[in-house]
Amino acid sequence: MYSDADAAALYDLLNPWGPCDDFYLSFVMDSPSVLDVGCGTGMLLHRARAAGHRGRLCGLDPDAAALGRAARRPDVEWVHGRAQDLRREREFELAVVAGNAFQVFVADDELRAALAAVRAALRDGGRLVFGTRNPAARAWEGWRPERAAEVVDAAGRALRVVHRVESVADGVVTFTETVQTRGGEPLRIDRASLRFLDADGLRGFLRQAGFTVEACWGDWARGPLTDASENIVVLARAAAAGESL
Ligand SMILES: C[S@@+](CC[C@H](N)C(=O)[O-])C[C@H]1O[C@@H](n2cnc3c(N)ncnc32)[C@H](O)[C@@H]1O
User: Fold this and answer.
1) Is 98 in the pocket of ligand 1 (CB under 6 A)?
2) 219 Cβ below 6 A of ligand 1
3) Using alpha carbons only, what angle is made at residue 126 by residues 17 and 56, rounded to the nearest 5 degrees?
4) Which class is domain 4-135+196-238?
5) From the CB of 101, is ligand 1 less than 6 Å away?
6) Using CA atoms, how far apart are residues 239 and 148, in angstroms rounded to an integer?
7) Smallest CA separation from ligand 1 atom 2, residue
8) Any idea where the domains of the chain sit in the sequence?
9) What average pLDDT is seen over the chain?
């Protein structure tokens, strides 16, 4: 067996700090009040505080084990819950959705509700920044057992983490992640679905929620978006009521 707390710690091992995190951190450090939607284990806000951010930092996530790990740093506000259920009014200058957490909003109504709640939590003119895997790059084709990651966890267990895609339908990829011993004994299996939206689809949902898209990049260095781009990186602004979008 592999506990939720073990899985949260393993997430950090498998997802070390990278260029996407530097990208998000630059926005966070420039903003006095930040909401991190789907903050997971809290790495981004931890780093911001450690780097001298003195303003308001708030992380939101429904995964209690991940949030418990995040809460090891008490000088950040941690909120247990889903983005769709957030009820905050004009409290933040910036919202980030890092680590492809944007893709967890699979159904149209989930995504609309999440974006509406994030819009409400932002002040007029506030920014939303996120990345999402570009459907044109078909990342899920690489989620195969032969590309398993091998890792030694904090308890010294030699593990293999295996992904298997179960279905790809209407832009939604459903897959399993199995944590197993190197000998192949499964310790934990998680199933998840992620939505892959293209730039036009993203623009439509954002406009409907009251955002104007300021930039749509193809990488963390703010390069152009092409079919070969692995990610779609979006900077949007919360429009004031009545502003034409
Ligand atoms: C891939 S992780 C990204 C974590 C973190 N942002 C990072 O950069 O490493 C996706 C996160 O989205 C969270 N999540 C899932 N459903 C959510 C929802 N409805 N609202 C907010 N976060 C959600 C998960 O619990 C998970 O921590």
Assistant:
1) yes
2) no
3) 60
4) alpha beta
5) yes
6) 43
7) 101
8) 4-135+196-238, 136-195
9) 97
Q: How far is CA 168 from CA 1, 196, 206, in A?
A: 29, 10, 24
Nearest CA to ligand 1 atom 23: 38
pLDDT at 14: 96
Query: Is the C-beta atom of 100 inside 6 A of ligand 1?
Result: yes
Mean pLDDT of 199-220: 98
Give me the residue label for tokens 């530097």. 22
Does residue 20 line the site of ligand 1, with CB under 6 A? Answer: no
What b-and-e string marks burial along 222-240, b requiring 16 or more CB atoms within 10 Å of the CB?
A: eeebeeebebbbbbbbbbe
Cβ–ligand 1 contact at 193 (below 6 Å)? no
Mutate to test the pocket of ligand 1, among 61, 69, 106, 115 (most ligand atoms within 8 A of CB): 61
Question: What's the angle, vertex CA 100, arms to CA 122 and CA 131, rounded to 5?
Answer: 65
- pLDDT 10s digits, 93-117: 999 999 999 999 999 999 999 999 9
Round to whole Å and give the CA distance between 178 and 163. Answer: 6
Show the tokens assigned to 107.
């159904």
Give dist(CA 217, CA 235) in Å, integer.
8
- Taking the centre of ligand 1 as the mean of its atom positions, its distance from the CA of residue 96, in whole angstroms, is 11
Distance CA 242, CA 201 (A): 23
Residues 163, 140: Cα–Cα separation, whole Å:
9
